[in-house]
Specification:
Number of helices: 11
Strand content: 15-25%
Helix content: 40-55%
CATH architecture of the largest domain: Sandwich
Oligomer: single chain
Largest sheet: 6 strands, antiparallel
CATH superfamily of the largest domain: Regulatory protein AraC
Shape: elongated
Order of helices and strands: HEEEEEEHHHHHHHHHH
Distance between the termini: 48 Å
Structural class: alpha+beta
Number of strands: 6
CATH class of the largest domain: Mainly Beta
CATH topology of the largest domain: Jelly Rolls
Length: 295
């Protein structure tokens, strides 16, 4: 006999609400499951290990990234919006989303990172623009089990199952009307955000600096000066990073020839594109496509 406990009492209460099924041969049919794979777990215990900078991160473009802030809080930039990640909250960053860490306090933190590859799951798509959300008790339990399985190097299949369950629960609480209104109103008006919005809204289209300057309401020379003052980076370097991010996405997700991708991302020739790509990522565009082709 199971000893009486608050949990067993709750199970018995829930069981009392279950009626006999109409048919014992047909149950509830769920959509095909999408499971994470190639799971990697690591922890950051110091804020200065997060590579704090306004430029987009180029780490593992093709992978999902689940960030859980157990101790310490910070501001992170995802695509063109800035979000706060508070203690006890988590955020899911999607493949090829431009992300960086802007400010994290205190110096001693405990942020858990889970990165993985996974086919697109429509049930998680609303998290792409959602604010960071609190981890409930069940999500924390699942995260603890994931870390236990990772440290004991046992059962990769069970690790996969726990992460899939964590993601499912994390994404299950869809935003209500009021929260969706807040999400729709998220609009970072920093110069970095305005530049990113203009570039990211035109994937695969050649970037013209004159048009970018007009879109943010400044002259080209003024835009260059203000961007460096605001971010510490040259505008040219930042735009090159964004173009290379776009190229990574096209190489990974489409069968477009490398030459077409070079032109679509604003490079004058396949040679200048290949040179810039190899210098930045230490791998040629064709090798990148071979290494990170979707399974």
């Amino acid at each position: 006999m199971i000893p009486t406990s608050p949990l067993s009492e709750r199970i018995e209460t829930l069981a009392s609400r279950i009626s006999d099924p109409v048919s014992y041969l047909h149950g509830r049919i769920a959509p095909p499951a999408v499971f994470p794979n190639s799971i990697l777990c690591f922890v950051r215990r110091r804020a200065d290990k997060l590579n704090l900078r306004p430029a987009p991160s180029r780490t593992q473009h093709h992978r999902y990234l689940f960030i859980a802030a157990l101790r310490g809080a910070g501001r992170i930039c995802v695509d063109a919006a800035t979000h706060t990640l508070r203690e006890g909250q988590a955020r899911l960053v999607f493949p090829f989303q431009y992300h960086s860490y802007l400010a994290v306090r205190p110096a001693n933190i405990c942020w858990v990172f889970l990165t993985f590859e996974m086919d697109t799951d429509p049930r998680l798509e609303h998290l792409r623009i959602a604010p960071s959300r609190l981890l409930g008790e069940t999500e924390l339990f699942l995260l603890a089990e994931i870390l236990r399985l990772w440290t004991t190097i046992k059962s990769p299949a069970l690790l996969q199952l726990h992460l899939a369950t964590l993601l499912g629960r994390f994404g299950a609480r869809k935003s209500g009307p009021e929260q969706q209104k807040k999400i729709d109103g998220l609009h970072d008006d920093s110069l970095l955000a305005r530049v990113n919005r203009h570039v990211l809204a035109r994937p695969g289209r050649r970037l013209v600096l004159k048009q970018l300057a007009a879109a943010v309401g400044q002259s080209e020379s003024h835009l260059r000066r203000r961007f460096r003052a605001a971010t510490g980076l040259s505008l040219g370097r930042h735009l090159r990073e964004l173009r290379l991010q776009q190229a990574c996405s096209l190489l990974h997700r489409t069968p477009q020839p490398v030459g077409e991708i070079a032109r679509a991302c604003g490079f004058d020739s396949i040679y200048s594109f290949s040179r810039a790509f190899t210098r930045s990522l230490s791998v040629s565009p064709r090798a990148y496509r071979r290494n990170f082709r979707p399974g």
